[in-house]
Amino acid sequence: MKKVKVFAPGTVANIGCGFDVMGLTLDGVGDVVAVTLYDDKDEFDRHASASGNAFVSTACTVSVKNNSKEKLPETAAKNVVTPAVSAMAEAFLEKSGSKEALYMEIEIIDKIRPGSGIGSSAASSAAAVYALNHLLGHPFSEVKLVDFAMEGERLISGTAHADNVGPAILGGIVFIRGYNPTDLIKLPVPDDFYCTVVHPHITVSTKEARDILPANVSRKDAIRQWGNVGGFVAGLLLDDMELLGRSVEDVIAEPYRKKFIPGYDALKSRLLEAGMLGVNIAGSGPSVFALSKSADMAEKGRKIMASHFSDQGVGFETYLTQIGMTGARIV
């Protein structure tokens, strides 16, 4: 058997304006996943401690063991890591010409709280495919790993999107120019660029947050959103933090998703008045993020966030990090 342990970071998807096409990496916040690849079925049956919940296909057998503090699905078939590694197993057998199925156990060691809005499902999927790719001898590129990890997003939300798994694997700030094929661009990150996130203890499923969105948007809103995406990318390229901050505006999802977050408008106003560059909903929510250009300003934002949800009587965690430059990695 072969085993490796991988950390994959949490992420902030959309970054306000970039719905499904942009995400950034948080530094030091994420999931730790161990993958054991067995030589054959007999070895798997002897050693895989969670084999009783295994998912079985022609390409692989996958068991998932949860040793984290979070409650996760009890069967492998319902865990986001399974469709991700299953897709990789199918591609590996086709690429290698082998007819021997893969047998593996995936152990979730540390876990971002599910439904937090900072890429909880993406981090596990990203870590699992990164680990399996290492155990198989690196047959796939990072972009292909993103494709595989997106299958976990499809399971949890109904849609395969890369705005979380992209930065979870590549690190930094990632722009997804398009899908089919997946076209990823890693954007430059300014020095002293910070992200503060508050996660209120409110569960909002990704599917629920996607279902609340309108099926169509007006031309006016579409044009405004395109302008903000362009402004954000230009702000990074020109190192123009004020332009970047002005562009963290979302007219597509924020007006609908903010209803899940107690006192969202008041919180956003307080943070912007305090000097944050931009404020918006992290991914599908309920987490809220604020971008700033110094550690002191980021800490100021954290205190405002903590005060807001304390006043609301809602439990919460806060995270204050620089933008993480490294994605999934062996630990």
UniProtKB/TrEMBL annotation:
Pfam families: GHMP_kinases_C, GHMP_kinases_N. InterPro entries: GHMP_kinase_C_dom (IPR013750), GHMP_kinase_C_sf (IPR036554), GHMP_kinase_N_dom (IPR006204), Homoserine_kinase (IPR000870), Ribosomal_Su5_D2-typ_SF (IPR020568), Ribsml_uS5_D2-typ_fold_subgr (IPR014721). GO terms for cellular component: cytoplasm. Keywords: Amino-acid biosynthesis, ATP-binding, Cytoplasm, Kinase, Nucleotide-binding, Threonine biosynthesis, Transferase. It catalyses: L-homoserine + ATP = O-phospho-L-homoserine + ADP + H(+). Its EC number is 2.7.1.39. Pathway: Amino-acid biosynthesis; L-threonine biosynthesis; L-threonine from L-aspartate: step 4/5. Residues 236-310 form the GHMP kinase C-terminal domain. Residues 86-172 form the GHMP kinase N-terminal domain. It is found in: Cytoplasm. Its main location: cytoplasm. SUPFAM superfamilies: GHMP Kinase, C-terminal domain (SSF55060), Ribosomal protein S5 domain 2-like (SSF54211). GO terms for biological process: threonine biosynthetic process. One of its GO terms (molecular function) is ATP binding. Catalyzes the ATP-dependent phosphorylation of L-homoserine to L-homoserine phosphate. Belongs to the GHMP kinase family. Homoserine kinase subfamily. This is Homoserine kinase. It comes from Candidatus Egerieousia excrementavium.
